[in-house]
Amino acid sequence: MQTYKMFIDGKWEDAANGDTFETKNPFNGQTWAAIPKGGREDAERAVEAAHGAFTSGAWPKLTASARGHLLRRLGDLIAENAEHLATIEVTDNGKLINEMLFQLKYIPQWYYYFGGLADKIEGAVIPIDKADTFNFTRNEPLGVCVGITPWNSPLLLLAYKLAPALAAGNTFVAKPSEFTSASTLEFAKLVEQAGFPAGVFNVVTGFGADVGETLTTHKYVAKIAFTGSEGTGRKIGELAARNFKKVTLELGGKSPHIVFDDAEIDNAVNGVISGIFAATGQTCIAGSRLLVQRKIHDQFLEKIVNLAKTARMGDPLLTSTQVGPVTTPPQLEKILSYIDIAKGEGAECVLGGGRPDNPELSKGWFVEPTIFSGVRNDMRIAQEEVFGPVLAVIPFDSDEEAVHIANDTNYGLAAGFWTQDMRRILKVSAAIQAGTVWVNTYRVISYMSPLGGYKHSGIGRENGIASIQNYMQTKSVMISTAEDVANPFIMR
């Protein structure tokens, strides 16, 4: 069994109390690693190390170009170790090796992109309306930033936060999910190898009540970036607000996936399947509400059911597997409970609806790809995030009805729709309340394109040029060239 240590101030250390906790493989339920069970003392040490690295030592003396070089070097190391890191993530979270290897080969682009951006953050000279005054602005780092990541894509979602934070000159403390801490600890080895000064990047593992809350409330922490559930995000936001800390929150979703009657049907079928059953539905952007125009509803439902039936469940480390296990036992129970709720509400289960009967999958945390028809948008299965391979199908008649149903939820992270009508594309994409809208595609991300939510789906945006501003603050500098000091009792 693999035994890990935390990475604090450039050193590999056990938890202060010596405790560990087990992490299990979702495919077979077997314990495969021991993770340090950090506590408040460990979290405080990590923040203090990050604060020290920000205020003194080598990091603040580096030029922006030198920071960018370190980030690009880190990107190279991730690329060189992509297969190893992908295997660790699959073992930890049960997602498909095909997907995690794609992610790990793509993640270096975040460090290349923001590494290149590091020395291109410029201030401005303002043609101020005050005589004898020269005014310019500086963009400066915030200080210690905390990244709290979920269990579904730990290193990708860490890159969303870490790359712009370091490019801007901040220091960082990462707190991965207690269910999937191993890959972040493996990643820390690459940060060390890349040559970042001690304390610039730290990893504390443990549970939210001890580690997470300490990181969120520590006086030296300037910003918290979190991806995860709405409930946890609300608590982080409330704690951060007490001391006016900045936050970026990417939270839940109940994304509408709309198919109009003029869509390219086979392409839309593939897009819908990808949107809900890829990653076993364990993504915030999952297209979990399928809205189908009534004219093609029955035909389309038959096609997605027939295709979903062919999905191969099995070992996520095999490239032939298409649907892997759910990552955690609590999530497995949550998904099964929502399936029961949907049945109780009167939705018709036309596919799946439980655990597979294949004995080869009995030790893992598997749920069958599940499709419900006859769903109303006021049902819990249509309003609450299941975070699993469960699709709710809702018919509609007009464009206006589709938009109304799409927006009739507390969430607004993503949406997608399929049509060949350009006028409809422009009107519907403008009307949908979501941070990302895909047209004739689904589940596309880029380090260049902003990602974030409307309504309860979060605050702020990650990725793209604008995201680096979330890790900076603007200082205005005014220099007087006047020979005489003005009347001190009158505002200038």
CATH topology tier name of the largest domain: Aldehyde Dehydrogenase, Chain A, domain 1
**Which sheet architecture does the biggest sheet show?**
7 strands, mixed
H/I helix tally: 15
Give the CA-CA distance, first to last residue.
69 Å
What form results from the Cα inertia axes? globular
**What's the name of the CATH homologous superfamily of the largest domain?**
Aldehyde Dehydrogenase, Chain A, domain 1
- Major sheet strand order: 15-16-17-14-13-19-20
Count of domain modules? 2
Note down, in words, how this protein is organized.
This is Aldehyde dehydrogenase (NAD(+)) protein. Residues 12-477 form the Aldehyde dehydrogenase domain. Pfam families: Aldedh (PF00171). The chain is α/β, with parallel strands linked by helices and 492 residues long. The chain folds into two domains: 2-251 and 457-476, 3-Layer(aba) Sandwich (Aldehyde Dehydrogenase, Chain A, domain 1); 256-439, Aldehyde Dehydrogenase, Chain A, domain 2 (3-Layer(aba) Sandwich), CATH 3.40.309.10. The chain is 37% helix and 21% strand. The chain has helices spanning 40-55, 64-80, 82-93, 97-106, 108-117, 154-167, 182-194, 208-217, 230-241, 265-277, 297-309, 329-345, 380-383, 399-407, 422-431; strands spanning 2-3, 6-8, 11-13, 20-24, 31-36, 125-126, 133-141, 144-148, 171-175, 201-203, 221-227, 246-250, 256-259, 289-293, 348-351, 370-373, 390-396, 411-412, 414-418, 436-439, 454-455, 458-459, 472-480. The strands form six sheets. Strands 15-16-17-14-13-19-20 form a seven-stranded mixed beta sheet, sandwiched between helices. A six-stranded mixed beta sheet has the order 10-9-8-11-12-22, with helices on both faces. A hairpin with a 6-residue loop joins β4 and β5 (31-36). α1 packs parallel to α8 (208-217), α2 packs across α7 and α5 (108-117) packs parallel to α6 (154-167). The longest helix is centred in the first third of the chain and has 17 residues, at 64-80.
